[in-house]
Amino acid sequence: MALSLMLRNCPKLKGLSALSRGTFPVSRHQNFTQLVCKNRTALPLAVKCHNQFVKAIEPTRKMSADHSKLWSIEKLFSLILLGVVPATFICPNKILDNLFAVAVVMHFHWGLEACVVDYVRPIIVGPVLPKLALGLLYVVSATTLAALIYYNQHQIGIGQTFRKFWCISGTPADNEAKNQ
Predict the structure, then answer these.
(1) Residue 141 — pLDDT band, cuts 50, 70, 90?
(2) Which residues, 6+ apart, have CB-to-CB distance to 12 below 8 Å?
(3) Is the Cβ–Cβ distance between 165 and 95 less than 8 Å?
(4) Residues annotated in a binding site
(5) Binding residues for heme b
(6) 157 φψ region: left (φ > 0), alpha (ψ -120 to 50), beta (else)
(7) Is residue 78 a contact partner of residue 107, using CB atoms and an 8 Å limit?
(8) Residue 44 to residues 6, 15, 24, 50: CA-CA distances in angstroms?
(9) What is the per-residue pLDDT for 35?
(10) How high is the pLDDT of residue 68?
(11) Ramachandran assignment for 36, one of left (phi > 0), alpha (psi -120 to 50 degrees), beta (any other)
(12) Residue 9: CB partners within 8 Å, gap ≥ 6?
C-alpha cells in the first residue's frame, strides 16, 4: 500500500526539488526552532515545505454533491425499518408489506452501493468496470423491488409468508398428522 501511495504521488513529490536549497546558514550549534525564530527567511521555506508535503500526502476527493442529506435519509430509513419490520410480521397487510419491501431494498441498495464505490475503484480496475458494477447493482435492486411488490400484490405477501414459515415445526409426517 505504501508503494502504491508513493508511486501515485511521485509527480507531486518531484515538485519539492524546485525548492531552493541552502537559503539560510546553519551553524552546528543551532537547532531548527532557533532557525525559525531567529532567521525570518527560514519561516517561508518551512511553510512552503509543509504545504508541499501536505498537498502530496492528503488526497483530494472530488465529490459531485453534498452527501450529508443522503446520509440523513439513509439513517431515517434505518429508523423506519425498526418499526416496519415488526409491524409487518405482527399485522401483515399490503401497505405494510410494500413499505417493508421498499425500505429493505433501498437499505440493501445503499449498503451495496457503498461497497461497490469503495472497492471497485477506477484507479484499481479501470474506468469501465465500476460503471458496469454500479449499473448491475441498479438492475438487481430494481428487479428485487419489482419482484417483491409483485409478490405482495398477487400472492399472500411478505408478512403472511413469514408467519407461515414461523408456524412450520416438526417433520413432514407430524404436519400431515396434524392436518388429518
Answers:
(1) very high
(2) 55, 56
(3) no
(4) 107, 119
(5) 107
(6) left
(7) yes
(8) 26, 16, 11, 10
(9) 47
(10) 76
(11) alpha
(12) 56, 57
Which domains are assigned to the chain?
A: 9-57 (no CATH), 68-172 (1.20.1300.10)
C-alpha cell at 83: 418499526
- Asked if 137 and 75 count as a contact pair (C-beta separation under 8 A), the reply is no
pLDDT 10s digits, 68-99: 788 888 888 889 899 999 999 998 899 999 99
Locus of grid cell 401483515: 92
70 vs 149 pLDDT, higher one: 149
Whether the model clears a pTM of 0.90, i.e. scores above it, the answer is no
Distances in Å between the alpha carbon of 103 and those of 12, 140, 143?
45, 15, 15
Residue with cell 435519509: 73
CB 92 within 8 A of CB 160: yes
Binding residues for a ubiquinone: 119
C-beta of residue 162 within 8 angstroms of C-beta of residue 89 = yes
Phi and psi torsions of 154, nearest 5°: -110, -10
Helix ranges (H only) for 10-167 are 10-13, 32-38, 42-57, 68-90, 94-119, 122-125, 128-154, 158-167
